[in-house]
Amino acid sequence: MSKPPRKPRKSTTRKPSDAQIQRARELLAATDLETFIDLMHTEMTGQPFDWQPCHLEIVAHFDDIYNGRKPRSVLTISPRAGKTHLACLWIAHCIGRHHDSNWILAGYSQEIAAKSSGIVQAILATPLFQRVFPGITVDPNANSRDKWQVLREGAIVTGEVRTGGPGGSLQGFGAGRRRVDKTFGGAIVLDDGVRMDDARSAVVKNQSWNFFKETLLSRTNGPNVPIVIIGQRIAPDDISGRCLAGELGTKWEELLIPVLNERDESFWEAQFPAAKYTIMREADPHGFWTLYMGQPRDPKGSVFQPHMLELLPVAPVLPGARFVRAWDLAATSAADGGRDHTVGMLIALHAKRVFILDVVRGRWDAGKVEQVILHTAQRDGIGVRISLPQDPGQAGKQQVRALTAMLRGYIVESAPVSGSKLQRAQIAASQANVGNMACVQASWTNALLDELRDFTEGARQDDQVDALASGVAALGDLNITPEELRKRLEEQRAKLATHAMHFMAPGQKDTPAHKQWLAELAAVDEQLNPEAAQRIHDANERADAERVERAAAQARADAEWEKGAPERAVLEAARRAAYDVRCDQMIADHAQRLEDARAQCAGAISQAAAEGFTIECHDGRVRMRGITSRAQIQGPSPRLTAAMRAADLPLRMVYTVGDSAPLPAYEPMRFTRPPVRVAKPKPRIPIPTAERVANSHYFESEEEV
Predict the structure, then answer these.
(1) Of the candidates 357, 377, 436, 589, which lies 20 to 30 Å from 605 by C-alpha distance?
(2) Burial readout 212-243 (b: 16 or more C-beta within 10 A, e: otherwise)
(3) C-alpha distances in Å from residue 224, one per residue of 82, 102, 228, 624
(4) What percent of the chain has pLDDT over 90?
(5) Residue 34: is its pLDDT beyond 90?
């Protein structure tokens, strides 16, 4: 007999209580900074810490500093991201682990440094800190926020914390400890070395730099004492920028946490929404790149000096000026993740000065770009030349060819892009930096000035700079006088006119060479006589508008016609129903007549048989071919019978009765569409022909216009 299975033994392991878990975490917090921050933040605020990936990076950065892996470091992050709060928690944690550590907390003022010092004191006074690090307290006899000491029960050596700022004194005190085992002994922490309001003050920035270089750097008690700079960037030459640039001759390591990554994703979406800073990148590029991306630019500029541009409140009247709309085309759209913009910049040359009059800028797909270019050309008019960039390769040529075909009737020119961006930009910068360039104040002006200021070789935003460089290059010689320009144009036209007879030959019309020649000729003639060119352009625009209006009227008429389709269908159905009723009545009447005819026919057949006639039925039945006359139905007449007998003819009679009523054919209703009440548009004025050029005239008389 088999034994019954044994019952499983109950586990004797007890689930730890919440108090036991809390005590275990407090023990772990003594050596683990992340756990310490989690517990202490909840202790101080009553809310759990909202951990983000950026906070974990900062904790790892502080751990590297504590372990001696980063003796010189810079932490750059956006304002209001919690950097000061984390730094104070880190300092308190280090003091708990090394009560004898010496610290210098510095800032752009003594007050801001003392505020951070007070936060650290408050952390040390919490009951949680006493449970994690028992016996470590602030000396009650030396506990001012500017200078205070740390005590530990039974220990003789004490630690000290001092604060400082520009104008303060730290003489007689040094941060850190010189230890044989090179363990951590304190650090110098500079939190916000310069205020944002002083970013444009060279005097204040130099004072802060001198305080850092001459005072803070000399207050270390050993070569391995860490120096930590925390804060957002405010200028390229702030303290962080100078240290990272190597002005001190030492290597500084930076932890940079930009507000947006390369995919435009925020490092903390709840606190820093990506949509907000994507808009800010366009509206305030300088503040965006400086404060939130940690990549400040020189406010005066390096290649361009934007402060040398004359800002005009309104667009000036420039008689006799040369105008060009220069385009820089983006490779990808915003939907495809592209950062570049498509830019069209309107530039004029007048009295040897360059004027920036208008900027069209956006991130669009290819179809939208074509619409914007065409709409802008229509708004500018035919007197403004259009300059398109031609990228190397066959794709660039095809793009320019398609855009030129779309811009038929406008002066379009293109040239292959060659040389570096910096080389092309320096031609425009040479005019801007000597005050030979003016710009209209508009909604796009600030973004343009910021891009000019920030432009360097390899800059991330350079689309407007490229358009400006292309426009200045398209204007040609900036020092040429109107008389010299007209002379050159006449010489160029005479040279082009010599080829007119060649293009009049058979087979040469509509060839690519012929179209190119016509385009060049039109560009020259329109510059020689812009008034006539503008009249022709306006007349063609009116003709195009009339065609559009007629097409719109036709579309409206078609829509109205389609709108009445259900009503017409109802009328047609009623007409068809009436026709069917009439046909049914005719069929019923005909059936009655057939019955009457058959009865009469039966009587006639009996009468004919009595007279001796032979009755014949085709195919064994009476044929149904329609109703015969009443005389035929009533039987043979006596005269007919006597005549047939006299002629010795056989007496035979065939009787037929119809089987169907003769119905009328159905005729559908006829609906007439109303005519379109729009006049026929005028034809466009044709482009120049070789015959016109051979006769030395391109523009016809004003009657043609």
Answers:
(1) 589
(2) beebbeebbbeeebbbbbbbbbbbbbbbbbbb
(3) 27, 13, 12, 127
(4) 26
(5) yes
Lowest mean pLDDT among 178-187, 629-638, 641-650: 629-638
Q: What are phi and psi of 302, to 5 degrees?
A: -110, -50
Q: Confirm whether pTM is higher than 0.90.
A: no
CA dihedral 533, 539, 544, 548 (to 10 degrees): 150
Closest among 28, 81, 29 to 58, alpha carbons compared: 81
Contacts of 633 (CB under 8 A, 6+ apart): 597, 600, 601, 604, 655
State which H helix or E strand residue 37 sits in: helix 33-45
For tokens 């708990």, the residue is 96
**Cβ neighbours around 276 below 10 Å, total:** 12
What whole-number distance in Å separates Cα of residue 39 and Cα of residue 564? 76
List the structure tokens of 42: 């909840």
Judge residue 382's burial from the number of C-beta atoms within 10 Å of its C-beta, 0-12 exposed, 13-18 middle, 19 or more buried.
Answer: buried
**Three-state SS letters, 440-487:** ECCCCHHHHHHHHHHCCCCCCCCHHHHHHHHHHHHHCCCCCCHHHHHH
Write down the pLDDT at residue 390.
Answer: 82
What is the CATH number assigned to the segment(s) 54-257? 3.40.50.300
Looking at the chain, how many residues does it have? Answer: 705
**CATH of region 306-480:** 3.30.420.240
Per-state percent for the chain, helix, strand, coil, to nearest 5: 45, 15, 40
Do 437 and 425 contact (CB within 8 A), yes or no? no
